[in-house]
Structure formats: C-alpha cells, structure tokens
Design brief:
By secondary structure, the protein is an alpha+beta fold. The protein is built from twelve helices and 18 strands. The protein starts with 9 loop residues before the first strand and ends with a helix.
Length: about 500
C-alpha cells in the first residue's frame, strides 16, 4: 500500500481542467481517518481480493464531461470514493485517509479504433482485460471506463470497477441508482422491487421453530465440514488452485421477465426460485455436453455430482435507495452480506418443472434457517478473535471447496437515465474470487439478465452456458404452457 500522505487542511475536488468544484475542511466529514471495518479489511486478503464490475449499456452517445460533473457531486460525496486505504506498517491496520481527487484519474475515456472488426468482441475483450490488473492503491479504489462505440445492444458502454472493500453489490447498486432518475420523470428516483418477508423464520409455531433450529443445525454442520474438507465434485466448471489470479470473461444473456413471471405465477413460487431452477437445468445441459461429447475426454455422465453455490444474501432491513454519503441511519452502506451453501441437483428430469420444484424446496429450507445470519456472525467472530489472516484463509477454503458464487441483485422496475444518459442494460459481476464461475442475476425493466464471470481456462465456452440457460427457460415455459393446455382439454 502507499505511504500515508500528508493531510491537507482543505480537500479540493476538481474538473478536467483543474477548476475547483467544491472543498471542505478536514473534520467536516465524520469519517476522516476512520479504520476500515473488519469486513472491508478482509477483502484485501489473498483469495478474497475481489473487485466488483458494473457494466452499463447506454442508449445515447456518451458525453464524458456530463459524467464527470455528475460524479464529482455524487460519488465523491461518499468518503470511501474520496479516500485512500492506507496500511499502518507497524500494526497492519488500515484507515480511510481523505485525499485530493482528480476526477480525470478515475473517469477514463478510452481511445478506440473506429475500424475495428467487431465492436461487440472488442467490448467483451476490453472488460476481460480489466480483470488482469488491480487499481493502483495511490488513489481511491474505483474507476470508470467509457467506451464510446456502438454495439448490438447499446450506443455506448460504461464499465465501473470498484474494489469490494468499498461496499457490496447492494451498496454499489444503491449508489448508481442514487445518481439516476426515471426516464419518464427526471425528478424521481428509480424504484426497486419490495422486500420479501421470510415467513419461515418468523413463524412462531412450535413445529416451525423446531424446523428452523433443525435447518440451521444442518447448515452449520455442512458449513464446518466444508471449511474442513468437504469439496465439490471435480467437474468441467470447478476451478483449480489459483483460479482467483486468472483473468475472467464476462458474458450476458437477457431473458423476458414476463416469461419468468409466467412460471412463477403458475407454480406459486418466487422469481428467485425460477432463476435458480433455470440455472440448475442449464448446468445439466452444459455439463452433459461437456462430459458426453468428448471435448474433455469424458465418456459418461457421473452420478451424484456434488455442485454447490455460495449464495449471497443481503442482510439489510431495506433495499430502499438512500443518500450517497454512506451515513444512512438504516445502515445501507458497507459489506452487509451473509451467505448459504446452495446445492444444485445435477441430472436429467422427465419434467423440466422439477428443476424449479427442487430449487424451491432447497430455498424454503434456506429461508427457514439462520444460515446467512450465522455465516455473517461467524465471519465477524473469527475476525475479532483471530484476525483477518485466519478469517481470510477460512473464507478462501470454503469458497474454493464450492463450485461457484451466485448472487441476485434487484434492479430498477422502470427505464432509467444515469447522469443524463438513458440506460439500455445493467450487468454487475465480480472477479478475484476463488471459483471459476460466478452467476449474477439482475432485473431491469422487462428483462432479467444472467451475467457470467468465467475463468476461460476452466470454461472456454461461457457463451454456450448462456445459451443453455436460455434454452432451460424455454423448456420450463413450454412445460407450463403444455400443462395449462392439457388442463383445459
């Protein structure tokens, strides 16, 4: 890390030509020289040094000066985006140190070849290349890359990169949306889907309470066994040692939200149940092809595959969009996440709807347990008792013993404009995790997008997995429509 800089009495934020936009005296921000939280510190440990990538396609030609002017008055009002993370050489602790910020160091307008062969491939390759290098610690750990080139989905693309120590996916989605407005009403913030009450945990009946305790106990046992030795089956999507240090390929596949809601309503399940069912079915299609078509030398599809996801849960009481400063009394900002180990049953089904039924059964047990709260409590306890080194090794062991990360982040329900530019799509993801695959689901307006972050050494054809996810939804929807037709005969 960089040496601790001398603190100026006045912190100045500047435009592209160095003109002062705003300044305030040291002490005006009550976060000056505060230590990093244990969870933020944990994201600097080997195997946990994770970056969040936010890809945003825009419907209009990008005007960089408008972006810079807006970000000066929004991002830089959050102390984490205008502070260095500085390590004390003697104690090993880290602090937020306010610094002078030049917006040009963070908003980079890339020089592009107008005669490139494929703009889609260029954008995909560019984002992949970002995962090859970290952000220099001599500046706040975020940047924005502007690719002012037309692709099949957008007139231009913005790629945000944030170190995970700045906050989790919900925090950063909150920040992006706080800089946005409804396209139909420029004075109104976007709206997010409402919170879903976890009825299993709050049910006060004796049997329900015993069920919660049993589910929590089973989850605890699996958590401990995974931390000790229990590893997922070596499959074509299970990463090898050191996968967290390799570059990633980011690919997306958007499907109709109405199609997912059709399945949801017909089966009386949640949207999350449906997307998990789609993912489980997609894994079977992809793995069956990899095993049985001989591209990696397998002849037979194995029985009893153990394939688990680290499934992340938001532990906040609300997902409401709040102020960008990070001082909300509701605790919106930071890394406030727990996780559960979610098993996928990989195998053929006579009825594609069984994939969704399996997902619902597993998720009902997750909801009727304290597993996400437990993992958060356990991680914080280990941090306090044994320090970040031990907590980092524990996290790395658990994550690397599972197959993938899975996250579902709610997005805006209507079309939005970000810094005066209409948004075509939003695609968040991560790199630096000790898994070969991460699947992030984000909703936006009338679509749901599957965002894959894949290690190409392990998964050389991630676009095929995207196609398998789309095909899985088609099969599940067709089964719903067929059942409905038969019931009307």
């Amino acid at each position: 890390m960089a040496a601790i800089p001398a603190l100026n009495p006045l912190k100045i934020r500047t435009t592209t030509n160095g003109e002062a936009i705003e300044g305030f005296k040291k002490g005006d921000d009550d976060h000056d020289e505060q230590p990093l939280s244990p969870m933020s510190r944990l994201f600097h440990e080997p195997g946990s040094n994770v970056y969040i990538v936010g890809i945003m396609g825009l419907k209009t030609k990008i005007q960089p000066h408008i972006f810079k002017r807006n970000l000066v008055h929004t991002f830089l009002n959050n102390h984490r985006f205008s502070s260095l993370q500085v390590k004390d050489k003697e104690t090993g602790s880290m602090k937020w140190i306010p610094t002078q910020v030049n917006i040009d160091d963070h908003v980079i307008v890339e020089k592009l070849d107008p005669n490139m062969e494929s703009s889609n491939k260029f954008v995909e390759d560019f984002i992949s290349n970002l995962s090859r290098s970290p952000i220099e610690s001599t500046k706040p750990l975020w940047d924005l890359h502007i690719l002012d080139i037309r692709t099949s989905e957008a007139e231009g693309t913005c790629v945000f990169r944030f170190h995970h120590s700045l906050g989790d996916g919900v925090s950063l989605m909150n920040l992006l949306l706080a800089c946005s407005c409804k396209t139909s009403d420029p004075e109104a913030l976007p709206t997010l889907p409402g919170n879903i009450k976890k009825s299993g945990v709050t049910n006060s009946s004796l049997w329900a309470s015993l069920g919660v305790l049993w589910n929590s106990f089973v989850a605890l046992v699996m958590f401990v066994l995974t931390a000790l030795f229990l590893e997922d089956t070596k499959t074509p999507i299970k990463g090898s040692k050191g996968v967290e240090h390799r570059p990633r390929r980011f690919v997306t596949k958007s499907v109709s939200l109405d199609d997912i809601k059709l399945v949801k309503n017909a089966m009386n399940v949640t949207v999350n149940d449906v997307v998990l069912g789609i993912t489980q079915a997609g894994f079977y299609l992809y793995l069956h092809r990899r095993y049985c078509e001989g591209d990696i030398g397998y002849n037979n599809f194995p029985d009893n595959i153990r394939l688990r996801a680290t499934l992340f849960f938001n532990l906040r009481a609300t997902t409401k969009i709040q102020d960008v400063t990070g001082r909300s009394r509701h605790g919106t900002w930071g890394n406030k996440i727990g996780y559960a180990l979610h098993p996928f049953k990989i195998g053929p089904k006579k009825d594609p709807l069984d994939y969704v039924r399996d997902a619902k059964a597993v998720m009902d047990r997750r909801k009727a347990s304290f597993e996400p709260l437990f993992t958060s409590f356990f991680a914080n306890t280990v941090l306090k008792l044994f320090g970040v080194k031990v907590a980092g090794k524990l996290n790395h062991k658990i994550f690397s013993n599972t197959t993938l990360w899975f996250s579902n982040v709610p997005g805006p329900q209507e079309e939005i404009s970000f810094c005066g530019h209409e948004v075509a799509y939003i695609a968040p993801s991560c790199y630096g995790q000790p898994n070969a695959l991460m699947i992030n689901i984000v909703s936006y307006k009338d679509k749901v997008t599957f965002v894959l972050s894949a290690d190409e050494e392990t998964i050389p054809n991630p676009h095929e997995l995207c196609d398998d996810l789309e095909e899985s939804l088609r099969l599940i929807k067709a089964s719903i429509c067929s059942s409905h037709t038969m019931s009307n005969l």
